[in-house]
Structure formats: C-alpha cells, structure tokens
Amino acid sequence: MDNNNHLKEVEGKRVHDHFNNKKAAISAARRIMVPGPVIVGAGPSGLATAACLTEKGVPSLILERANCIASLWQLKTYDRLRLHLPKQFCQLPLMPFPSNFPTYPTKQQFLTYLETYTNHFGLDPVFNTTVVNAEYDHLSRLWRVKTQQGLKQEETVYLCQWLIVATGENAEEVVPYVEGMDCFRGPIFHSSSYKTGELFRDKNVLVVGCGNSGMEVSLDLCNYNARPSLVVRDTVHVLPQEMIGRSTFGLSMCLLKWFPVRLVDQFLLLMSWLMLGDTSQFGLIRPKLGPLELKNVSGKTPVLDVGTLAKIRSGNIKVCRAIKRLTHHAAEFIDGSRENYDAIILATGYKSNVPYWLKDTEMFSEKDGFPRMEFPNGWKGAHGLYAVGFNKRGLLGASIDAGRISEDIEHQWNSEAKKLMAFSRSLPLPPNQDLEFNSMVVN
Ligand SMILES: Cc1cc2nc3c(=O)[nH]c(=O)nc-3n(C[C@H](O)[C@H](O)[C@H](O)COP(=O)(O)OP(=O)(O)OC[C@H]3O[C@@H](n4cnc5c(N)ncnc54)[C@H](O)[C@@H]3O)c2cc1C
After folding, report:
1. Ligand 1 mean position to 318 CA, how many Å?
2. Is 126 found in the same domain as 14?
3. Three-class SS of 145-162
4. Which residue puts its alpha carbon closest to atom 12 of ligand 1?
5. Is 54 touching ligand 1 by the criterion CB < 6 Å?
6. DSSP helix/strand/coil, 316
7. Which atom of ligand 1 is nearest to the CA of 71?
8. What are 87-128's pLDDT values in tens digits?
9. Contact 313, 279 (CB under 8 A)
10. Please, what is the average pLDDT of the chain?
11. CB 118 within 8 A of CB 231
12. Where does 152-240 have alpha helices with state H?
C-alpha cells in the first residue's frame, strides 16, 4: 500500500471512530491538517526556513509562542546590542542586509531587516501559540503537534508530515542557584530582562557570567556610571572584535581555508596578546585549548571585546572570583572577599527547551536539547523531523540548515505531498467535522 492510501485509510478510520465512539475522540482540541511542514519558532531560523521553502513552492506553517517574530531579539535583549559578527555573516538566505546598514547592525536595524524579510516572503506566523507536545504517530505516519493558544490556553493539534524544530539554542534562561539567593534584599534577575544601565546609576551591581552578554552588560552599566563587578568563574577567551582591519571572525574563516585550526588559533592568540595584553593579569585566564578549537569541541564562543577590557584595565569594572554565598546586601566570594551590592544580574546563558515538548529522543538529546549528531549532520532526523539553528554556529549556521532542509523537503514535496493535499481535499468530511485543513499558506 503506498503512503497515500495508507494515510487515507488511517485518517478515514479516525474520522469514523470519532463519530462512533466519543471516548476515542482525539480530544476536545481542534485538529488541523497541514499539507506542508510545520515550523516551531518564528526566530531567524524559522523565518529563514519558511522563506527557502516558499521560494521552492512549498507552503509551511510557523507556530510561535510569543506575539511577534524574533522574540529573543525583540523582548530579551539589551538596548545597546549590535550584531557581534559582521552583517555578511548574519544575513538570512535570499536577502542581504541593506547596503546602507553598518558592518555591525544595531538590534533595531536587525529587527527592521527581519520584518522586511518576513513581509517580502509573505510569511504569516501563528502567534501566541506554544507547542507543548509533538509526537510522531506511526499509524498515520504524521506528526501530531499539540499547541496551547492565548490566555485561555485553547488546544489545537496540527497534523503534518514534516516537523521543523526552530525553537533555538536560547529558548529558556539558565538561572543557577546561589546559596543565600532568597535572602538577598536587592533585585536578582537574568540578563534577558536587562535593557539599559539607566536604572543603576551610582549603584553597585554584580554581573554573574563573563560571556558576550555579561561583558557587554558590564560595559553598559559603566557607561551609566554604575559600579559593576564581573564574576568570572571559568576560563575565557577574549579576542578583539577586529584585527588588522578585518573582523576577527571573517579573518578566522579565511585563514581556516588554508591553515589547520591550531595554527589559526596561535595566530589569533598572538594578535590578541599584542592588542589586548595578557588578560590573565585582570583575572581573565585563557582556556588550554585555543578559541576556535574550543568552539569546535565544546561550542563555547569566545568573547569579542567591544570595549569592556579597557574598563576592566582602568578599574571601572572589577573582576571577582566565583560566589560562595549571598547575604542580605552582599556577596561573599570563594577567595574570602566580600562586597555589598544593590542588584545582581545573571548573565548565565540559555538552554534549549526541546526535551520539554518533543517526544523524540533519537534525534535530540534529552540532556541538552541539541541534536545528537554534530554539524554538519544534525539537521535531519527520522520521519520528517528537522532541526534548524542548533549547530552552535549562529545565524550563518541557521542559514546553512535552512537551505539543506528546504531542498530535502522540496524533493519529497514534489513527489508525495501534492498527492497528499489532493487526498486531503477529497476526504469526505461530514459537516462540522473537527478535522480542518490549513490552506492559508498553500501556494
Ligand atoms: C544577546 C545575543 C546576541 C547574539 N548575537 C548574535 C550575532 O551577532 N550573530 C549571530 O550569528 N548570532 C547571535 N546570537 C545567537 C542567536 O541565537 C541568534 O542570533 C538567533 O536569535 C538564533 O535564531 P533562532 O531562530 O535559532 O532562535 P531564536 O531567536 O531564539 O528563536 C526561536 C523562537 O522559537 C520560539 N519558541 C521557543 N519555544 C517554542 C515553543 N515551544 N512553541 C512555539 N514557539 C517557541 C521562541 O519564542 C523564539 O521566537 C546572539 C544571541 C544572543 C542571546
């Protein structure tokens, strides 16, 4: 029996069962059949994939928990944020950044670009819709994607042949437990809620975490005359954003075409030493592995310095060891020192939320919510499951995934899905039957 007939039989049987046996009704949830892929997440990765699919004539449906596109950028980032990498490494497929944008576009410019991108490709995500469960049904050979929508949390189940996970590497904030956290009297919040240093003028602020966010938040606090201290628990590579007139990232990419990664790392470290000096003097001890090798092995991104190091050198930003415990107004550190603070900002990063909702442990690891296969093989799983934007290579990596996924689905779509769509439309549904067909994005 071919796939089409099989589907027809199974879904027809379901429809029949539903009428004859109320207990067997799937649930009170609305059910919608989606002819093309369902994409979970309307961040840059989801938008890029939908655009590539649209260009190939494959309709898709984007489900987004927030009320806007690119919610990470719109709702969870600070005002001074610019792209860390030059714009040519951050553009999405099929549409470059406007030529009048600077090399490192501001957050607002990036958002304007994404709005234009969305409109240009006619993308129309379904907002305020959180995917709470997605499971492959071996009987019907369809993904059943359960969502909750709006304040009333109304449930809908989307049925589709392809499921594209685009919920991002940064879906949920990581908030570590620190002893004494409950008794600290000032605010403690994640860097995703930090907008500007304006509120912290003349305040002592402890910033926990020395990744790109922690470093930039500290710099921003300084610019508003706050007194930040930066907790540096681990080793860290800090590199200048530019070297010999080129972006460090661009230069590295170029050198890697010709030289082995260790040699490129040695070059980057030499240049960093010449330009920034010995960072261990300020408590920023470098890891044993070089910056690119470390990124390959662990995914840990080097910090690109945009001025923080100068503030550390001048003493405007203090570097502290790991926190031992918090008290009402102070932090005690493992080296025995103690300091009073008015507020604590946790720049402690993010994690994937895939294990919470995707009932598939084959492709994605339950441990960290990332595909088990390393780049470049982590984008495709079994039964029409795909991942975009999980290769720890930022927006450039997401664009690569989006291209591969859209090509792969295009082949299947051309051979199979049109038949499925024809079948869907010909299914003899009784009036008011609860299986609907999504046609809003069908070309
Ligand atoms: C401060 C900061 C600066 C960065 N700067 C750069 C940079 O300069 N260059 C670069 O290449 N990368 C950068 N990154 C990396 C960043 O991950 C990418 O820029 C980009 O946002 C990744 O896009 P994404 O679509 O994969 O994930 P996201 O942008 O996180 O989008 C995922 C979307 O999925 C939605 N979602 C999550 N769970 C569900 C669910 N269950 N149901 C429905 N919707 C859901 C979210 O609401 C979100 O809108 C930065 C990250 C941060 C935090």
Report:
1. 30
2. yes
3. EEEEECCCCEEEEEEECC
4. 394
5. no
6. coil
7. 49
8. 999 999 999 999 999 999 999 999 999 999 999 999 999 999
9. no
10. 91
11. no
12. 212-223
Indicate if 339 and 359 belong to the same structural domain. no
CA distance 205 to 187: 10
Q: Cα(179) to centroid of ligand 1, in Å? A: 30
Looking at the structure, do residues 128 and 208 belong to the same domain, yes or no?
no
**CATH number of 58's domain:** 3.50.50.60
pLDDT one-digit tens code per residue, 285-310: 999 999 999 999 988 999 999 999 99
- Do 293 and 264 touch, CB atoms closer than 8 A? no
232 and 317 together in one domain: yes
Q: Is residue 337 part of a domain?
A: yes
Is 191's C-beta closer than 6 angstroms to any atom of ligand 1? Answer: no
From 147, 170, 191, mutation site for ligand 1 pocket: most ligand atoms within 8 A of C-beta: 170
**Minimum-distance ligand 1 atom for the alpha carbon of 393:** 11
Model confidence pLDDT, tens digit, residues 118-153: 999 999 999 999 999 999 999 999 999 999 998 889
Identify the domain containing residue 152 by its residue range: 3-171+352-437
Residue to mutate (ligand 1; options 39, 72, 87; most atoms within 8 A of CB): 72
293 & 394 share domain: no
Q: Give the Å distance between the CA of 103 and the centre of ligand 1.
A: 20
